[in-house]
Amino acid sequence: MENKLIQFNSRFLGVDMQTDTYFEVSHGKLKLREGTIENLITHYERTHDGGAEKTNVYRYDLNPTVEEIEKLKRTHQQIGVIKKERKIYFVDHIKVHIDKLPSGEEFIELEAIDRLNQFSDEELKHQCLHLKDKLGIHQSEIIQTGYLKL
């Protein structure tokens, strides 16, 4: 997979050792990510859309302060922790995660990022599905869930 990404002139951001802590909320997922590259608090909800998932982000706080993290832990019940090694690549504006869990299981995630609202939902979906096909990922290999449910 990484050789294919190199062939597509991807940009390698690095290897992030991540600990994701999930907290109970009434809808979606609330997550604290502590990593060597990415650190954030995010609240999001995913919906399935014909072979892809759309993510609605309600909160996205990069590099939260100690106070913000402590408040999160005080006000929400922790429901799970996932540790992983994540290799991060970009193919244009599509972020590609290659994850390895402590169990040895490996996963790939494609995430079309459009912070400037330049593309329609349908265009973003098409871009991800096109890259999925170029990478040789078969529809039968798609898992529509997050690590917390695995």
Structural overview:
This protein is of the alpha+beta class. The chain has one domain: Hypothetical Protein Pfu-838710-001. The protein is built from three helices and seven strands, in the order H-E-E-E-E-H-E-E-E-H. The protein has helices at residues 2-7, 66-75, 121-134; strands at residues 11-23, 29-34, 39-48, 53-62, 78-91, 94-100, 106-112. It has a seven-stranded antiparallel beta sheet. Strand 6 (94-100) and strand 7 form a beta hairpin. The model has no long low-confidence stretch (mean pLDDT 93).
Give the secondary structure arrangement, pairings included.
Elements: H1 2-7, E1 11-23, E2 29-34, E3 39-48, E4 53-62, H2 66-75, E5 78-91, E6 94-100, E7 106-112, H3 121-134
Antiparallel strand pairs: 1-2, 1-5, 2-3, 3-4, 5-6, 6-7
Summarize this structure briefly:
This protein is of the alpha+beta class and 150 residues long. The protein has helices at residues 2-7, 66-75, 121-134; strands at residues 11-23, 29-34, 39-48, 53-62, 78-91, 94-100, 106-112.
